Amino acid sequence: MKRFMERSSYERSVAVSTFTSSLANSNPGRPGVALVSISRLQSLCETVAPRYTGRARFFSVREGYGAAVTALQAYVDAGSVDVVLAAGSNGAYLRDNLSVPVVMVKVNGFDVLSAITRATTTWPGAKIGLVLHETISHELADLSAWLNVGLKQRAYRSIDEVRLAVTGLAAEGCSVIIGPGMACDFAQQAGLESVFLYSLGAVEEAFERSVELARVSRQKESKRVRLNTIVAHLRDGVAAFDDAGQLEAVNPAMLDLLGLDRDQDVPAQLTRAVGPLLRETLEHDLPVEERIEQIGGRALIVNCVPILEQGLRSGSVVTVQDALVAQRIDRSLRTSQRPKHLVARHHLDDLIGSSAALERVRRLARAGAAHDATVLLSGESGTGKELVAQGIHNASRRRGNPFVAFNCAALPEGLIESELFGHEEGAFTGARRGGKPGLFEIAHTGTIFLDEIGEMPAALQSRLLRVLQEREVMKLGSGRATPVDVRVIAATHRDLHALVEQGAFRADLYFRLNLLQIELPPLRERRGDVAQLARHLLNRSALQYGLSGAALERVLAFLAPLFEHYAWPGNVRELENLLARAAIYLGDSAGEGWQDLQAVFPEFGRMRQTAADVHGAMAPSHANGDASGRRSPTREDVIRALEQADGNRAAASRALGIGRTTLWRLMRD
Prior knowledge:
This protein is of the alpha/beta class.
């Protein structure tokens, strides 16, 4: 007995290596099956195995129980063995102590009856003892009398129980033992006859199951390794848990982001860190998405999503992302995807002139550019408020980031809201498919310039105030606010303080906007800058209009009286238009013999009329006019100018000496 159970290591190595080398190496890359037997089952396995060499590799292990586990673990760790084929108590032991599937050679009723038939045929009249694994067959007990066989049964769970079963059956007069290989060996040692229980058909059926299971296991393992390799290289932390909250997989990034000690109990540390998320997901059966959590002293974006298999919850997966990395990615995306035209072209040095009023604007603008405080630009239309806004942006730390300009008087109320704050898909009829980001989102990390802020509808003033206070916007149709980092510069030609007193503008919004106020002087209040500014503007457009140096001087000389005496109601914008007209009519390519200059340049006539008005009856009271004594256009003037210009608003505004925005406001009022 002892010699049987403890064969020399040399004999075992020879038996294993000979069979294994012939079958395992014939098809490298195939799934691996380990054939485990310490007795007669091995010869049947060696008979069947060659038929399956095209589908699997086979490794023979002639050890049992603990010794077999030790031998098999090396194969499993090396990835060579996917399935183990064994029988009886040895197979049951391996199944409880190995991480790979164990396929048992099953004894069916046909095998038992066939063995009984062989025993009764070979030894007629002999008492037969049947040794089965785990349980006896009550059906056979009932049939023994009908079969006219003296049959006694014993069950076993270990080698020792096999030996005791054979000894007990012999004591009861059984001279033939039917059972597994160990039972047959013990019977022979006791001087009894034996019949091997397992049939070739049972072994073939076990081989078929083993090979197929090994193939499926190899595929699953290959997918698992591939997935783990991918997850291991992710910068985001990933951890998977089963439905009981036990850790199944975790990548290195998760350990680093959570600051876990790899030398300590990682599952326990991880469970303490993300356990509340797992419990919340389990209790409410809802995922936790994009939540900001402070874990290990770091701000992290965490997600916890249930894993569903065939509609049933089987676990959870937790992902963690560094909030700082997400912010950098967000800035990069916004920068790379923003429209190319959202840039500020002008600088504060583009403010042409040396008057004290303009120097004051430059000084205040540079001071405001050094901080992120909201700036309110006030002044008449055409004084260059957007140029100053762009100059402040380019002089600030936000230069290089988007500069977004929006005229609050240019669109109806509904469109203003959609443009500024954006909308989700389906938020309203005609909403863009996929939604649309608002201008505040587009201006993230940059500056948004809100021109004509005094014209903003009252209903939207409260939404704008919330954006300024909370630094977040909510799209139309969305229930979630988006944080934005935006510097706001507002501009108006109206007296916002007066509008507040009239109840036409929110006081809290006014005080929020009026943090740094810069008032731009009208052109008539810095007449000393007009000639210098005109020369700069004309030089800039000389190529466009084909002006030679002589023609440029001729234009400037012709317009010189206006520089000194005209009221410039349209300010710099009007000056630009007048210079363009003069360049066209008085340049090198212009025709000669212009007799009626009054029709082409009505500004000269208005200049004389303004001078007369200054000395007239309206001068002391400045009734219905500005500080220069010029009478402001009335509604009747606007209607008359539009009729004379055949409805052309640009021509009408030129005739009135006002900007198009002012014309539109007069028409609306």
